[in-house]
Amino acid sequence: MKNSLLDFIYPQNIACIICDKPIKLTNTYSICKDCFKELHFLKDACMKCGKPIINHNLEYEDISNCSYCRQRTFYFDRAISCIEYNQTSKKMILDFKYKNKTYFCRYVAQIMSEKMELENITADYLLFVPLHKKRLRKRGFNQAEKIAQDLSDITGIPTLNCIFRKKNTKRLYNLNRLERQQEVKNSFIIKDNDNLLKNKNVILVDDIFTTGSTSNEISKMLKLIPVNKIIVLALLTRTNDPYVSFEENN
User: Fold this and answer.
1) Where would a tag sit more exposed on the chain, N or C end, judged by fewer CB atoms within 10 A?
2) Beta bridge partner(s), residue 189
3) Contact between 211 and 241 (Cβ < 8 Å)
4) Residue 122's beta-bridge partner residues?
5) First-residue to last-residue Cα distance in the chain
6) Can you give the residue ranges of the Double zinc ribbon domain (predicted)?
7) Model-level pTM?
8) pLDDT digit of tens for each residue in the chain (250 aa)?
């Protein structure tokens, strides 16, 4: 009944979810052809941090260990993103997060599930990056949680709500990498009273992978349990370390 009501309010494949232009019923992800052309689905990406590989000369850029992650210590085993960040994909996320278009999450989850199938990855549990309770009350929902729930419906992998943000961190989009690391340090706790996570493989879901500071801090906590394998799964990432106008985990 709930899904039927949602489909009535936001019927699929009538208008593009990005630009609102009329579309055909057969359009993939309810996106028009013009917007779809602007979405750069990632194919060549680092096998560790998931960021796009621009230099294809492997003498200088190895897709198993790119120049970006060679300079960093990551506690997760691998990060995978689906689409490169640009103005079109940015609008998709900002409308989702700040214009209350929560129905977007089912399309995001569909894209992620297809990426999981393509990369041949699965897990025992889906986890998600939490919001602080103050920010959650203000927004009314956690986008990462909603995506994880829809992804669970598609894949059959159960979702665990076991990560909590104990510190109401600043918005990270205008901070550099070192500032982000310091801001999220010791910001999370893991509650696994039933020892469900011990020696298990998990997928940590988020909307955007920027510097990886947030997901890395959570991964560090998960490894202490210890979790066996951690895959970070995000919709968007891009090549650079952006310090402005690129929101992560807010």
Assistant:
1) N
2) 164
3) yes
4) none
5) 31
6) 5-69
7) 0.85
8) 344 444 444 445 578 989 889 988 888 888 999 999 999 999 889 999 999 876 544 444 455 668 788 778 899 999 999 999 999 998 888 887 777 788 888 999 999 999 999 999 999 999 999 988 888 788 888 999 999 999 999 999 999 999 998 876 656 556 666 667 667 788 899 998 889 999 999 999 999 998 888 999 999 999 999 999 999 999 999 875 544 344 444 5
